[in-house]
Each structure stands twice: as C-alpha cells, then as structure tokens.
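FYI - complex with GLP, inputs then prediction.
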Amino acid sequence: MKITIVSDEQQFDRIAAWRVIGEILNKPNAVIGLSTGQTTKNLHHIIREIYQLHPFEVKDVTFFGVDEVTNVPREYAGACYTMLKTQLIDALGIDDDHFIMPPTLSDDFEKECHIFQDKLESKGGIDLQLLGLGTNGHLGFNQPGTPFENETWLSAMDEVLEARIRKETNTPPEKALGGLTLGIKNIMHARKIILVAKGASKADIVKEMLSGPITTANPSSILQLHPNCEFLLDEEAAEKWQITHKK
Ligand code: GLP
C-alpha cells in the first residue's frame, strides 16, 4: 500500500492535482474518474489553474464522475454533473463525448447503469480513479453492506446527505432520492486509484480502512487489496492510524 501523508492542505491539493495531470501527460487518452465533495473541490481548482498557466493537451482525455444523485435536476448545484462541470470540465474545454455521466433523471435507472458502464468499457476502462471517503467508509455511493461484487447500480445515499439534498431541492418525502454509482467491483478494476481523505472527522474510518478487517461493513477496506492504490491523507485524517502504527 502506498500511503502519502502531508501536513499542508495546499500541498495535499497540489499533489493530487499533479497525479491527475501526470496521468494525462503519460497517457493522452486516459480515462479518469473524478469524485465530488469537499475533499476534491480544491484539487479541481488547482488542475484548472495549472491548465490556464501551462495548457496541456486534453482533447483525447475522458473524464467521468464515480457517482450521481438521482431524481434531482441535472442543473441543481449539488448534482455531481454540475459540480464537476463548474469545478473542472468546462475550464478544460472538455466536450460532451469526453465527459461521461449518468443522467439524474430517467424512467429506467437499471438501463442507465448499463449504459454508463458500457461507455467506460468502450473507452478502454478506467486508468485513474480519484475517490473521496465517507465517514462511514462509503466509496462513491456504495454504503456499508454493499456486496464487493456489485457493478454499477442504483444505491441510497447516507441520511445526512439525503436530508440536505431534499431540503435544497425541495424534494418531498414521497419522492425517492438515490445515488447511481460505480460498484465496488468496477472501482477495483481501475488500473490506478487515489483515495483522498482530509480532516479529523475521517481519522477513525481511515484507520479502519488501512488496518481494519476487510469487510463490507466498511467498503473502503477493500482498497487494501488493490495492487495500485495510493492513499493521500492529511495529518489529521492519518492521525489515529499513525498512533497505532508508530514503531
Ligand atoms: C459523497 C460522494 C462521494 C464522496 C463523498 C466524500 O458522498 N457521493 O463520492 O467520496 O461525498 O465527500 P467529502 O469529500 O465532502 O467528505
């Protein structure tokens, strides 16, 4: 396991941004999976800034999001599509053929899961997947209890996020909100993964992810078995793991 711990937040974002740019420079037609959330927001901005200062070739790169909220308008600021568009995709001038996202609205999400997965496979599969980490260990929208062999599917989001999105979109309780997500199996098939986690609120789950049992109760624990996964952590997120692993 490659574990990178940095003390400075800017350095954290810069390292993550350069991992993405490095992938693009090495493989101009790379397929790169992004994640939304507080942890990845700044690293997206840094990629933009570097691109604006020193443009690099992106016309053959394909980006996609690991997950999407369902049953909200795509233009809603909390939809992953809109977050990724505004944080990164538009600034790089990526066209629609090179930004793959499942729709937020559909009559048949099962079909959409297949379409999303097939599109990624037709591009050659995932070269690099950036992943955030839920405080309960979720990856994408794969909540605790998700079977490791799941492929792209329609899951549920955690209660706190669901309550927030419901409020922000005025979605009534009778209307279901969901999370369409790559499954754990798809994530594990990525050729490279970078898991990013910042802050003290992630310290317990980071310790479990790195040294706890590999169990569906903590989806992130499966990453211990990935042959090419880097865990990029700040000091606060790494603290509890470091205490138990001091020589
Ligand atoms: C949401 C997303 C996940 C993301 C997670 C982390 O649940 N669906 O893909 O990894 O948030 O969010 P944050 O970085 O804000 O902690």
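The mean pLDDT is 96. Residues 35-39, 66-67, 132-134, 140-141, 161 surround GLP (CB under 6 Å).
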